[in-house]
Structure to design on (829 residues):
């Protein structure tokens, strides 16, 4: 009902031409603009106004609808093969994913963190990283803006922006659809759209897509499975768009989208690395009294992945919706998105723009976060049988028995309302400006029951019968305000000076509630019913930016820019409910402040700049763009995991410096129908000040994670007529990446070796795409690479290591999807 009220309000605003705020989105750029190299025609909105890709003084990669459709780009992770230095990780119980650019990103663990790479969906920034898991399609264009973008995109764009623009209504009635089957994951996809004018002033577009993969993840071969050998994934996206232009001074554009996803667990593709000791480390429990064999192999060179481990006991877990007893891993999420944009022309020289957005996310998972546990369990206390230590575990123990540990039931809910107003000029003289204001209100809930010892191996809670150690519920509310202004001044016909300033004020408060704690843990954890807060966080920031662009001739521009970025700090939501939380309610101000500082993290800031050249040669058939950058990130927000204490560690890295250069080249060759393109990036990102990782090491001088020194791609597209009624299409893309570290825990973190992947497609159909049959392959070499790495929970500490039970060093690796091969049939008319 809450969502329906918001949607009704947005529709009412959009269909009422009151004087004041207005905006309608421009028609999407032509599909060919970003796919056939004619970059002078690609329109981007990197500075909140329409500019050609060759004009805008920053590094932007634009992908048009033809490329996105050709290679079935329906997830953010699919964009990686076309954008060097972009890394996208999917899955997990916290934020649900992470995005990084040029070696700078945010935690994939904590849902409290904003992303350092902002996600801008149809002009609305979405703060929750759960959007990484959601699908999209019917997309007009994707833009990746590299480097700080805080002036125009605000507080969560300290490292860059990933902007997704969905297709808009067309001026004539159009229909289209696609059906396809994917052979590797045994999946199928169907989608379609209808678009056109309802009246002379109102156009609509309705689009929907359903995608299902029965073998999204293949589990390790084993004697037992919780969900079977394969984990599946289902995804539905539906969108309604209305564009209304009742006069030449006012227009409005409304989008309402719903995304539903369900699957057999919270984790995406991944595996377990057995560390330098080369063995599958035991699951170490109950303070060193009990251990369970891991039950997985040590292969990470391809499928199979980690074992599908179910809980050891007949579970009864407390959740906000009531107790659950069926805990085979599963996941489901629902995401509603609404955006109303309006434009009102104030005479011939000014335009007032309003963008109103609302996001409502509800995601719930059940999974086992030990990733291990296959009987028989055994006692680590000499002369004491397992039955005397953990009688409940002993009652179910046996060879080959699933003894899953670390079962969690994370509920993530986010409601976000945003409002932006902008006034832009279009004056005849050399000076133009834009001023604006932005407001965001967000409410986030993180509610989970977890096993970290687990005490239920001794016995379920004697009062409730619950088998989790505790349940905690954390509600975080935040308000952010900002005002900004930018201006451009044509110093001469060739020289343009531009710049601006944004001021941001952020306030957050958090309430921690622990409704339930296992009775046997009263000496270590807070008691059932504990409540603390509100805990408050406040910060503000000034983010200036200035650029200078010189047009050498109509085909060559050079530029230099100085930029700053800002990402607000906040209050972490991953703290364990240990007795340390009691300090949050202390009457002693010093004790209370110390307890609060343990769960707060500082704001992140960036400053630096880039220089570049954008050129077109060979009668604008060839484009050659290059840039070099240097940025310093202060207090980079980091979250690591202690796999022995089963505790997240929230930190601010002292300083990360990232520098490098990028080259983009494209050419419409003299051979009709053949286009070539390539990207090459060099990145050198390091921790440049003292950074104690939380696991005892100073990482100063070490490479930042997910920052390969070299990355690039080479692509070709060829289309040729076979007959007057038949056309052949062939395309390919080679992506390569040098080695990189996958975490920021220690100086010898897991290193991903260099790799290369190949995508390709071949199609035959009618000219103009009225119908087409296509065979599409992505990651044809079936190369699996590691996005992130972290300690596997429940490892044996070095202080308790013995000859037969060495210190644990296993790592949980998150990875990409393997090879996908699609057979598709599509039509449009």
């Amino acid at each position: 009902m809450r969502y329906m009220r918001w949607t009704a309000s947005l529709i009412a605003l959009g269909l009422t031409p009151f004087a004041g705020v207005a905006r309608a989105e421009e028609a999407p750029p032509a599909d060919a603009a970003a796919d056939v190299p004619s970059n002078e025609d690609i329109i981007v909105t990197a500075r909140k106004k329409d500019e050609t890709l060759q004009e805008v003084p920053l590094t932007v990669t634009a992908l048009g609808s033809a490329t996105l459709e050709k290679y079935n780009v329906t997830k953010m992770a699919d964009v990686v093969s076309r954008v060097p230095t972009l890394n996208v990780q999917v899955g997990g119980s916290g934020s649900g994913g992470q995005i990084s650019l040029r070696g700078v990103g945010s935690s994939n663990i904590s849902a409290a963190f904003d992303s350092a790479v902002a996600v801008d969906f149809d002009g609305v920034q979405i703060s929750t990283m759960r959007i990484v898991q959601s699908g999209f399609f019917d997309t007009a264009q994707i833009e990746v803006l590299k480097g700080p973008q805080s002036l125009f995109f605000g507080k969560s764009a300290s490292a860059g922006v990933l902007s997704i623009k969905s297709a808009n209504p067309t001026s004539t009635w159009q229909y289209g659809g696609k059906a396809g089957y994917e052979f590797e994951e045994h999946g199928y996809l169907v989608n379609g759209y209808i678009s056109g004018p309802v009246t002379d002033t109102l156009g609509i577009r309705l689009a929907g897509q359903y995608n299902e993969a029965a073998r999204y993840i293949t589990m390790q071969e084993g004697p037992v499975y919780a969900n079977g050998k394969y984990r599946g994934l289902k995804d539905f996206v539906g969108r309604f768009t209305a564009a209304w232009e009742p006069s030449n001074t006012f227009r409005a554009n409304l989008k309402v989208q719903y995304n539903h996803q369900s699957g057999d667990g919270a984790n995406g593709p991944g595996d377990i690395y057995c560390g330098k000791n080369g063995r599958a480390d035991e699951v170490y429990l109950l303070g060193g009294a009990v251990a369970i064999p891991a039950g997985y192999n040590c292969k990470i060179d391809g499928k199979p992945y980690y074992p599908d481990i179910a809980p050891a006991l007949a579970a009864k877990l407390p959740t906000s919706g009531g107790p659950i007893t069926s805990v085979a891993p599963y996941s489901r999420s629902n995401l509603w998105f609404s955006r109303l944009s309006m434009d009102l022309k104030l005479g011939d020289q000014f335009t007032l723009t309003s963008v109103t957005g609302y996001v409502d996310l509800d995601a719930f998972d059940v999974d086992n976060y030990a990733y291990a546990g296959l009987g028989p369990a055994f006692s680590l206390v000499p002369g004491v049988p397992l039955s005397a230590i953990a009688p409940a575990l002993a009652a179910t123990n046996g060879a080959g028995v699933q003894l899953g540990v670390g079962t969690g039931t994370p509920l993530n809910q986010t409601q976000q309302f945003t409002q932006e107003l902008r006034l832009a000029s279009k004056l005849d003289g050399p000076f133009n400006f834009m001023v604006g204001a932005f407001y965001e209100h967000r409410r986030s809930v993180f509610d989970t029951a977890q096993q970290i010892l687990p005490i239920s191996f001794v016995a379920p809670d004697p009062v409730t019968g619950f088998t989790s150690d505790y349940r905690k519920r954390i509600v975080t509310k935040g308000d952010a305000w900002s005002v900004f202004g930018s201006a451009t001044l044509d110093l001469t016909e060739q020289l343009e000076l531009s710049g601006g300033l944004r001021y941001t004020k952020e306030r957050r408060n958090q309430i921690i509630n622990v409704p339930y704690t296992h009775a046997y843990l009263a000496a270590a954890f807070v008691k059932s019913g504990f409540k603390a807060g509100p805990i408050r966080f406040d910060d503000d920031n000034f983010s200036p930016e200035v650029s200078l662009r010189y047009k050498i001739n109509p085909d060559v521009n050079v530029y230099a820019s100085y930029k700053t970025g800002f990402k607000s700090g906040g209050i972490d939501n991953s703290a364990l409910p240990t007795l340390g939380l009691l300090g949050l309610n202390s009457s002693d101000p010093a004790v209370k402040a110390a307890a609060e500082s343990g769960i707060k993290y500082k704001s992140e800031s960036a400053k630096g700049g880039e220089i570049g050249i954008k050129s077109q040669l060979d009668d604008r058939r060839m484009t050659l763009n290059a840039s070099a950058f240097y940025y310093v990130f202060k207090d980079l927000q980091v979250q690591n995991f202690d796999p022995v204490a089963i505790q997240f560690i929230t930190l601010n890295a002292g300083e990360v410096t990232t520098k490098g250069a990028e080259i983009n080249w494209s050419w419409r060759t003299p051979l009709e129908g053949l286009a070539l393109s390539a990207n090459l990036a060099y990145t050198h990102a390091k921790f440049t000040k003292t950074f104690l990782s939380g696991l005892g090491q100073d990482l100063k001088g070490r490479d930042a994670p997910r920052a390969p020194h070299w990355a690039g791609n080479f692509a070709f597209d060829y289309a040729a007529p076979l007959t007057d009624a038949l056309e052949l299409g062939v395309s390919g893309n080679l992506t390569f990446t040098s080695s990189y570290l996958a975490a920021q825990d220690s100086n010898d973190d897991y290193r991903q070796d260099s790799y290369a992947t190949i995508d390709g497609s071949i199609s035959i159909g009618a000219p103009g795409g009225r119908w087409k049959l296509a065979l599409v392959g992505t990651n044809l070499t079936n190369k699996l690479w590691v996005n992130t790495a972290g300690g596997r929970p429940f490892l044996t500490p070095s202080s308790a290591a013995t000859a037969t039970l060495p210190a644990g060093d296993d790592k949980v690796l998150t990875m990409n999807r393997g090879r996908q091969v699609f057979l598709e049939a599509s039509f449009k008319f």
Remarks:
- Residues 1-37 have pLDDT under 50 and may be disordered.
